[in-house]
Amino acid sequence: MAAWIGLEINTLSIIPLISKSHHPRAIEATTKYFLVQAAASTLLLFSGMTNAWCTGQWDITQLSYPPSCLLLTAAIAIKLGLTPFHFWFPEVLQGSSLITALLLSTVMKLPPTTILLITSHSLNPTLLASMSIMSIALGGWMGLNQTQTRKIMAFSSISHIGWMTIIIIYNPKLTLLAFYIYTLMTVSIFLTMNTTNTLNLPTLMASWTKTPMLSTTLMLTLLSLAGLPPLTGFLPKWLIIQELIKQELTTMATTISLLSLLSLFFYLRLAYCSTITLPPNPSNKMKQWSTKNPTNSLIPMLTPLSTSLLPLAPMMLTI
């Protein structure tokens, strides 16, 4: 009951922010978000009640009835947007502002992730691993043909949630590390896009003439989110693959490594658009040396952390 109340409060707290603009698309996103989250919370409550009915145990961290374990896994998957319950997430992000999309991608994922960590030993491992692999595959595949940056970040989030959940049964600490680093990089990218008012790829292509340094740091952060080796984003993927190999799941580790190449393609396309290409406009229209939005003071602090934490990996792991 406490978990259900907490998830409902979490849902209700973000709804006014999504519907703040009073645009029809925002109202549609709000309705979708509310219905999906309410259904997932109710499913979680139903899972606990079914387990209590059959075993007499009310604690959701000690589920032993198999149908209850399946229901709990499905409820948390809906909350997080894991495949095949991902349909609501890109649409809700597309109907929200960039800052609200940032909150939906990071802060709103924390309560379901916490419940996932607490109940990880009660979940169905086969179902969770299957949904994780499908999420990594679909997050990369669906992001290939997108031109809206919010939808691209939504499919990026689906893919990263797949990486987090695939390892949670074997090493929950790695899930937390992956979530923290993903949050760090995502906050940096969304704040940068909010500063340059980037909602699609053509706008991203024109951002170089407005803020060259900001576009360069955005490129590095995107490559870090893709998981390229010298950057911070490589750390969680490296450790997750290493842990899967230790658990003698080499086939699974190889599969998700190959599937992450799909995500790498659209990250490279975003990086390419932000720094290398320029839109086919006359130069007098491109010379916009100032932006309407002031640069957020968090960006200079978050960007170096999003790109250069890899040398600190040994210290982070010992802590």
Automatic annotation (TrEMBL):
It is an enzyme of class 7 (translocase). The chain crosses the membrane at residues 33-53, 65-89, 101-120, 126-144, 174-193, 213-235, 256-278. It is a multi-pass membrane protein. Residues 264-317 form the NADH dehydrogenase subunit 2 C-terminal domain. It comes from the Eukaryota. It holds the Pfam family NADH_dehy_S2_C. Residues 2-262 form the NADH:quinone oxidoreductase/Mrp antiporter transmembrane domain. It is found in: Mitochondrion inner membrane. GO terms for molecular function: NADH dehydrogenase (ubiquinone) activity. The keyword Disulfide bond does not apply. Its EC number is 7.1.1.2. It catalyses: a ubiquinone + NADH + 5 H(+)(in) = a ubiquinol + NAD(+) + 4 H(+)(out). One of its GO terms (cellular component) is mitochondrial inner membrane. GO terms for biological process: mitochondrial electron transport, NADH to ubiquinone. Keywords: Electron transport, Membrane, Mitochondrion, Mitochondrion inner membrane, NAD, Respiratory chain, Translocase, Transmembrane, Transmembrane helix, Transport, Ubiquinone. Belongs to the complex I subunit 2 family. Core subunit of the mitochondrial membrane respiratory chain NADH dehydrogenase (Complex I) which catalyzes electron transfer from NADH through the respiratory chain, using ubiquinone as an electron acceptor. Essential for the catalytic activity and assembly of complex I. This is NADH-ubiquinone oxidoreductase chain 2. It comes from Anodorhynchus hyacinthinus. The lineage of its organism: Eukaryota, Metazoa, Chordata, Craniata, Vertebrata. The gene is ND2.
